[in-house]
Design a protein that fits this description.
Length: 817
């Protein structure tokens, strides 16, 4: 018996029994105790310091330390991403790693990386500057070389003119210019550098305006993009040389260069010196390249070491941070030697938690063990269902509507079957069902690989619901076999059709010439119905009546579950004045309609059920005539109509008055009994104070009951009509499938052309996948979801609980992945 309590009951109908527990933990073993409870993952802590801000709590400094370490790890991750490395998933957990040692190690690694990055940036900047300097020397040297060649040619031309005949027409100024004292000639200065090509025109224009045209600018395009030393980005630049006269002009040029972000470099006119500079710069570039490569190798090795341990370190920091967050929720005893914790845990985990507490005491060498004490409380416990990978997706469908109240009947148990079944009723085609099954089988077979990967939003959603889709596919195959549709094509899978031609002239387009020649087709719809003129009326009638039967059955199941809820919570009022009249009202009308449908199917009667139900209300005493399906039907209809009319006030009036009577009796009984049972005047005062707040508002209760009654009466009609969506979507799916087959595939086949056939097949596949397997699947899923949330769950499910959220390291590991 003791072993049975060690495991969860796996009872999905009721949530696990929970208990409120108080833990008194010695302060020296507190950290290890919380760590072990996090590994166990069965204890939800309550915040006993909710009135304190995060900065006033005991372990605020430790959380700050963990936050700083997390920042360093984020820095490492950014560096690894830049280097093209990813954290290793093979790093094994090493429990010997201490948080204090890790803090020191992370600090050292961060300092080393920052220093490496700073050195690398300086070296890279120097390298880029030297590359630009080399370009300036080469391009500007070309300017001066061409200018000197041009000047020499001009000089030779002048000398030739002087040696010629001295004509009176020769310019006098030229002679004066040639004999001018060289010391009095104007000396031009120049500024050289690189400017962004996109800014070169603006740069030239501003220079011209600022110096009033007293400069000469020469530019040369650099063919390949160069790395800018300031930004480190590849950009296109031009080499420029600006010639000027005067110091003021130079100052303006320098300021304009700074404004445009143009890098300036010194340049010499001496040709020999230029070659020497180029040689020196080339040698320096080789040295810098070697140094940068060595630094990058060293940085890469360091980052690989970090990447190997990154997951382990990150998980350790997250664990410790969560432990200190949890410790901040505990209150400190007045002696400052113990921490007091309160929280919820499942009853089945009691012995596990006690074993963990003992283990933590031993491992931390504490002289005093932790105390485990169960508290009595009237507070509603959290809801915990122990699910597995198959049932968790179905439970999530229910939880999306609302978390079940503690030990309330869980619709998730029935959703496992009813949800995929109602989907399949709308999606019934065993060809489409096989396609869905193959798609979801891929996710199920490779679930280990997918569970360890980071998936996209859509893929992650499909992967999470893989077992839901599998059940939907299996039920779709089942209903498709019942409808006898394989991509809208019927097959004689379970034997030959029961119908045959009366004579050879009859066609499949009409049933007029068909007679029953064999026994009834054993399973599903007879294949001869497909393609006939009466196919649509027949399937309409079949699917509409089937939808009503399924809807009434599911609504009855919901009301029956409300009985089990009331029985479990020992609420006799809900059984007598809610469950009983609701069952009578629903089944007097729509249960009776379901009975008529079954009787009509069994007897083959031609009775008009619309007429029967309408005149049951308008003139219940009239003779039924040809619409009578069985003996005593008229009397039964009158009895059921009266029962339905009686059940409405039965739901409305008794419950509010009985609740008021119960409240008055309880209030009177307590006020007398407490004088004998309570000795402390403070307790008596507190008790009377609490009673005074529990005033019974009869009007509020009555209005609530009135709303509930109206909602059920109107909902019984609207919810039954809502189940007709099963018929509508099933018909739409069948007709769409038939249109794609007849108007695309068969039409393309009829042309006897291989190209048209291939195009037709491609269009048919795209239409089937895009419309029927994606859009129709989503549509049927949403409609099945609505039928469960509104039509089924509102009959019994309150969904006002809150989820059990234990302190667990398993959640941190999932986040890390």
């Amino acid at each position: 018996m003791g072993e049975g309590r060690q495991r969860p009951t796996m009872d999905l109908l009721r949530s696990e029994p929970m208990q409120l527990v108080q833990l008194i933990i010695p302060i020296e073993s507190a950290h290890r105790t919380i760590s072990y409870l996090g590994d166990l993952g069965f204890f939800q802590f309550k915040d006993l310091n909710s009135e304190k801000s995060p900065f006033q709590r005991t372990y605020a400094s430790q959380i700050k330390r963990c936050g700083e370490m997390a920042r360093k790890l984020r820095f490492f991750k950014d560096q690894m991403t830049k280097a093209g490395l990813s954290p290793s998933v093979r790093s094994a957990m090493n429990d010997s790693v201490d948080l204090d040692n890790l803090e020191v190690k992370l600090g050292e690694l961060e300092s080393e990386l920052i220093e490496m990055n700073a050195n690398h940036e300086k070296l890279q900047q120097s390298y880029n500057e030297l590359v630009e300097y080399k370009l300036v020397v080469q391009k500007a040297g070309e300017f001066f070389h061409s200018a000197q060649s041009s000047a020499a040619a001009k000089q030779r031309e002048v000398e030739a003119q002087q040696r010629g005949e001295g004509s009176i027409d020769s310019p006098l100024l030229l002679e004066q210019e040639m004999v001018t004292d060289p010391s009095k000639q104007v000396k031009l200065g120049y500024v050289s550098g690189l400017v962004l090509r996109e800014k070169s025109l603006a740069f030239e224009r501003i220079l011209f305006r600022a110096t009033r045209g007293n400069v000469f600018l020469k530019q040369s395009v650099v063919e390949d993009p160069v790395t800018d030393p300031a930004s480190g980005e590849k950009v296109e630049k031009n080499v420029f040389v600006v010639f000027y006269s005067g110091e003021r002009a130079r100052n303006k040029i320098v300021k304009i260069c700074e404004a445009f972000g143009a890098n300036r470099y010194q340049f010499t006119e001496d040709l020999g010196r230029q070659f020497q500079i180029i040689t020196e710069v080339s040698g320096r570039l080789e040295e810098l390249k070697t140094t940068i490569d060595v630094g990058l190798v060293h940085q890469s090795n360091l980052l690989q070491t970090i990447a190997y341990h990154f997951e382990q370190w990150s998980l350790l920091v997250k664990k410790d941070k969560s432990i200190y967050h949890t410790l901040n929720m505990l209150s400190i005893d007045v002696t400052k030697k113990c921490l007091v914790a309160e929280g919820w845990c499942p009853v089945f985990a009691t012995s596990k938690i006690q074993n963990v507490l003992q283990q933590a005491t031993v491992d931390s060498n504490s002289q005093v063990g932790a105390i485990f004490h169960v508290l009595q409380t009237k507070e509603s416990p959290p809801t915990y269902f122990h699910t597995n990978k198959f049932t968790s997706a179905f439970q999530e469908i229910v939880d999306a509507y609302g978390i079940a109240k503690y030990q309330e009947a869980n619709p998730g148990v029935f959703t496992i079957i009813t949800f995929p079944f109602l989907f399949a009723v709308m999606f019934g085609d065993w060809g489409h069902g096989i396609c869905l099954l193959l798609a979801t089988s891929y996710f199920i077979i490779r679930e280990k690989k997918f569970s360890s990967q980071k998936l996209g939003d859509i893929t992650e959603m499909i992967f999470g619901g893989r077992y839901v889709i599998m059940m939907m596919a299996l039920f779709s195959i089942y209903t498709g076999l019942i409808y006898n549709e394989f991509f809208s094509v019927p097959f004689e899978l379970f034997g030959p059709s029961a119908y045959g031609c009366r004579d050879p002239s009859c066609r499949d387009a009409s049933t007029a010439g068909l007679v029953k020649v064999r026994a009834t087709y054993p399973f599903g719809v007879d294949p001869k119905w497909h393609g006939t003129r009466s196919e649509l009326p027949f399937l309409n009638s079949l699917k509409m009546k089937m939808s009503i039967l399924l809807g009434v059955a599911q609504m009855n199941l919901g009301i029956i579950l409300s009985y089990f809820n009331a029985k479990f919570y020992e609420n006799e009022l809900n059984i007598r004045y809610q469950f009983v009249p609701q069952m009578i009202f629903l089944n007097s009308l729509f249960g009776y309609l379901s009975l008529l449908i079954v009787v009509k199917w069994c007897t083959g009667s031609q009775a008009d059920l619309y007429h029967v139900m309408i005149y049951m209300f308008l003139s219940p005493t009239d003779d039924l005539g040809e619409n009578q399906l069985f003996f005593g039907q008229k009397f039964l209809q009158i009895v059921l109509l009266l029962a339905a009319l009686v059940s409405v006030p039965w739901m409305l009036f008794p419950k509010p008055f009985l609740l008021k009577k119960q409240h008055d009796e309880r209030h009177r009984g307590q006020s007398y009994a407490l004088l004998d049972s309570l000795d402390d005047p403070a307790e008596i005062e507190l008790h009377h104070g609490s009673n005074s707040h529990e005033e019974f508002e009869f009007s509020e209760v009555f209005v609530h009951q009135l709303i509930h009654t109206i909602e059920f009466v109107l909902g019984a009609v609207s919810n039954t009509a809502s189940y007709l969506r099963l018929w509508a979507l099933s018909l739409a799916h069948s007709e769409l499938s038939s249109v794609f087959y007849d108007k695309v595939l068969l039409l393309a086949w009829g042309f006897n052309n291989i190209i048209i056939l291939i195009v037709g097949i491609i269009v048919f596949i795209c239409a089937t996948v895009g419309v029927l397997l994606v859009m129709e699947t989503l549509s049927a899923f949403l409609h099945a979801l609505r039928l469960h949330w509104v039509e089924f769950q509102n009959k019994f499910y309150e969904g006002d609980g809150y989820k059990f959220q234990p302190f667990s390291f398993a959640l941190l590991s999932e986040e890390n992945k």
